[in-house]
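Q: What structure does this chain adopt?
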Amino acid sequence: MTTLDDSELVFDKDGVRLTVEDAVATVTLTNPAKRNAQSPALWRALTEAGRSLPGSVRVVVLRGEGKSFSAGLDRQAFTPEGFDGEPSFLDLARGSDEDLDAVIAEYQEAFTWWRRGDLVSIAAVQGHAIGAGFQLALACDLRVVAEDVQFAMRETSLGLVPDLTGTHPLVSLVGYARALEICATGRFVHAEEAERIGLANLSVPADELDAAVRDLGAALIAAPRDAVIETKALLQGAAGRSYEEQRAAERAAQARRLRDLAGLGD
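A:
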């Protein structure tokens, strides 16, 4: 995994640090004292991170400093005073439906860019990944977890719903029935279960997490970039296509690859 010693610092603000080393970018949540609790300022910084990636980046690693990946939304959001310079969630609730929808859509932008077609994103998850933290891990293409990981979707327990783009990938990964049970109960999902049901690609001891993510990133970069991009597009679209439509999409993608390899591409 990249470190500040061998990578270029792009920015470091509002609890988010972005560094780049060659084809690998690392986005780090940097408030371990609060278990990387999330806020609107952090979400804006995550959105900026996505917009700041150099074109050379192929893999993005998302990690959290300290014992927890992210313990979820900072509870200060629910106090009358909220965050300095930000409307409190209570104030937002008093606004119009249109205004509230626009604000939530802005927050969601921090969670949408991780599945861009030209990137593969990996969440390196240890300790707590609760609520918004769970949804941030779900925003990535792949998840490698430490054996101490604790996933939980606590929004329903608080009288809310998961609204930071996590419901779609959760259902895609584990199916409707299990996703409903996880969300409605708010229970913890630990490493062994996460790997077994498809939430995690790999579970490793905590002291091996960085090395496992580094090895996975290297393996992803080893394949030609255009082939990975075409394959990702095929897989992302498969659920929305019929079997015959997917066959056709495979043929079209392969034709593009063969022409490129033969030097006959556009």
